[in-house]
Amino acid sequence: MDNRNTSLSSSFSTADCARVCVLHGISHLIFYSDRTETMERLSTLPGHNCDYLSKGYWNLRYISEDNFEWCKGYQEFKPLITKYVGKNDRVLILGCGNSSLGAEMFSDGFQNIINIDFSEVVIEKMTKRYPQMQWFCKDMRTLEGDADLGQFDVIIEKGTLDVLFVKDKSPWEASPTTKHDMKRTTDSIYSLLRPGGRFVSVTFTQPHFRLKYYQHEEYKWKINYETFGEGFHYFFYVATRECP
Fold this sequence. Notes:
The protein is of the alpha/beta class. It has a single domain, classed as Vaccinia Virus protein VP39 (Rossmann fold), CATH 3.40.50. The protein has helices at residues 3-6, 14-23, 35-42, 55-64, 74-84, 101-107, 120-129, 176-192, 207-214, and strands at residues 91-94, 113-117, 134-137, 152-158, 193-203, 221-228, 234-241. A 7-stranded mixed sheet has the order 3-2-1-4-5-7-6, with helices on both faces. Strand 1, helix 6 (101-107) and strand 2 form a beta-alpha-beta unit. The longest helix has 17 residues, at 176-192. The termini are far apart. Residues 1-42 have low confidence and may be disordered.
């Protein structure tokens, strides 16, 4: 596989959310209240949606970009994090990008956090910025049985899985490639979860589009979801792996 073109991206800005919302048939667009800031965010958008799958695009973007949040920031769904994540849990954040999610959780007492992203540029920058946490350059589709990582009590993704669908023409039917990449990713997640562990997925994608990709017969976990946000709702999915 050519990692330059097909590896996974990490986090999106709010302006990016607007672009992908259009792709997924969602009419509600979100922009920054300040017009200048909105235009600055829009200037970082790629020429084509498929560029979100390009490692080169993200490496170039992260050279000059310091922080972007996909979906909402940590404070918006903090009550849900504290509900499902324990302070002593071993936590893995997938596609961390330059989001402050891990750093804010760390400041709140969740101090056993590992962050991964496929962009070596952002991993190097975040390692220097937050040396108190661990950072690894890894592709979330190929983590199954990763001995370097071990197992986790909680695995979190915030908008990272949404990028897998950017090339699809319809949210109702994903392409074979998208389905394959989603399955590889959820296989990786399931293999890294301890019995009783939780996979947390934060996204704008509604249950009728997303749940089918989490529900596989071989996965022995129970799934529930909650919503947060005003006006435009985001979804907080929790898949809890059953104990033997």
